[in-house]
Design goal:
Layout (H helix, E strand, L loop, with lengths): L4 E5 L13 E8 L8 H17 L4 H24 L8 E9 L2 E10 L4 H13 L3 H17 L8 H6 L4 E8 L3 E10 L6
Antiparallel strand pairs: 1-5, 2-3, 3-4, 4-6, 5-6
Helix pairs in contact: 1-2
């Protein structure tokens, strides 16, 4: 019998316990039907579609930010859902977009192999614990270039790229008979003054 457990990394807000949203939508992608050779194009078009739709419901000042930031966030999160999903399994990637006041909350949920969890936890904690996201980005870029010279692929840049846009990330990992990861990206719609 598998014991159920929940691990939370960062400031995770459970959708079920949140207040009523001003507006929300859900997109479900069947992982098995996404052509791996056309992965970039598939996730890029899905993210672009979400940005375009959501841009229609916001004022013009926020429309540009939502299109660019939501697009970038969704591209990275959909890619991770596919990259770390269950190989050969016909699982669903669910993307919930929820607007409350001046923040868009993006929840991406997918099943994964338990063996992927330690790497996810390490990457998540590293991104959240850094004091300077730009220094971490430069360090990971150097590591990715060094790995490429050795014929390896290792970037760990997705979460960092998201956080560089003033987006807060958090995770909920449920383990039991299956392992489900929910990533939360909190996008402020009003850009901070620097």
């Amino acid at each position: 019998m598998n014991e159920k457990s929940i691990t939370v990394i960062g400031d995770f807000i459970d959708m079920k316990h949140s207040v009523i949203y001003d507006f929300s939508s859900t997109v479900r992608l069947r992982a098995k039907l996404i052509n791996k050779e056309r992965l970039w194009e598939s996730k890029d078009r899905s993210a672009e579609f979400m940005g375009d739709i959501w841009g229609l419901f916001l004022d013009q000042e926020k429309e540009h930010r939502i299109k660019t930031v939501l697009h970038a966030v969704c591209v990275e999160l959909i890619e991770n859902s596919l990259k770390y999903g269950i190989e050969g399994d016909d699982y669903i990637i669910t993307v919930n977009l929820c607007l409350k006041d001046d923040e868009l909350q993006v929840y991406t949920e997918n099943k994964t192999e338990p063996s992927h969890i330690p790497g996810l936890e390490t990457a998540a904690r590293m991104a959240l614990d850094t004091e300077n996201i730009m220094i971490l980005f430069k360090q990971k870029m150097k590591e990715a270039k060094a790995a490429k010279k050795l014929g390896q692929t290792r970037s760990q840049l997705g979460f960092i790229r998201i956080m560089m846009q003033d987006v807060k990330l958090a995770w909920q990992i449920k383990t039991g008979t299956e392992t489900v990861v929910t990533t939360l990206a909190r996008i402020p719609l009003t850009k901070k003054d620097r």
